[in-house]
Amino acid sequence: MTLALYLHPLASFCHKVLLALYENNTPFEARIVDLMNSEEHARYLNVWQVGKIPVLRDETKNRTVPETSIIIEYLDQNYPGPVPLLPRDEPARLEARLWDRFYDLYVQVPLQKIVVDRLRPDNGHDPIGVAEARATLKTAYSMIENQMATRTWAIGSDFTMADCAAAPALFYAGIVEPFGNDHPHTTAYFERLIARPSMQRVLAEAQPYFSMFPYQDAMPARFRNAGATSNS
Predict the structure, then answer these.
(1) Between 109-119 and 127-147, two packed helices, what is the crossing angle to 10 degrees?
(2) What's the CATH code, domain 90-224?
């Protein structure tokens, strides 16, 4: 197999790259990495010394490609499919990059702050940091609400890299900090995202691991139950 993706099925940043691969039916080998296993983690450092996932390995080109946005751009350049995830038009391309970074930095990062805090011992919690993270999410939701009032996908009528970033970010963020009734456009956008076959596949593969998610008690039953990712 030319391409191998080092990942974990529960990890939201891995979901982002999986969406890009599944949207274009790009052949690849999934290599699951358990970073909580010290021996496995140590071996993985030979692949990517930073120790983060996901990482794409292209054996044909002898390239190791880290960082989700770079991986998706690499796939778009070297293994293009019927769904161009970066628009060919330069202004639209820049817009896709902008909203890709927006979802990574202002949705993914604060939600991970909230999730990780729940894993800390009782004397190690950071209530101020968590409050700041929730405030950032609320600001992000407000911006997304305005953005999606007139759009189908993140930057317009076409599904792009920005939507690959948005889908897993909103999936987990909506659990730790629900959108609320005052964000109907955000909610509708989220429903469109999870209805895509690529996201349905990602969620089906993640479902066996949802019990490991620190906020799994707040996860809607339609996601916890296998095969129940429709609007129910």
Answers:
(1) 150
(2) 1.20.1050.10
Q: Which amino acid is at 82?
A: P
Instruction: Give this prediction's pTM.
Output: 0.93
Task: Decide if pLDDT at 229 tops 50.
Answer: no
Q: What percent of the chain has pLDDT over 70?
A: 97
- Report d(CA 158, CA 228) in Å as an integer: 26
For the chain, residues classed under CATH 1.20.1050.10 are 90-224
DSSP summary character for residue 183: -
Task: Please give the structure tokens belonging to residue 83.
Answer: 């769904």
pLDDT digits (tens, 9 = 90+) for 39-48: 888 889 998 9
CATH assignment of 3-78?
A: 3.40.30.10
Beta bridge partners of 3: 58
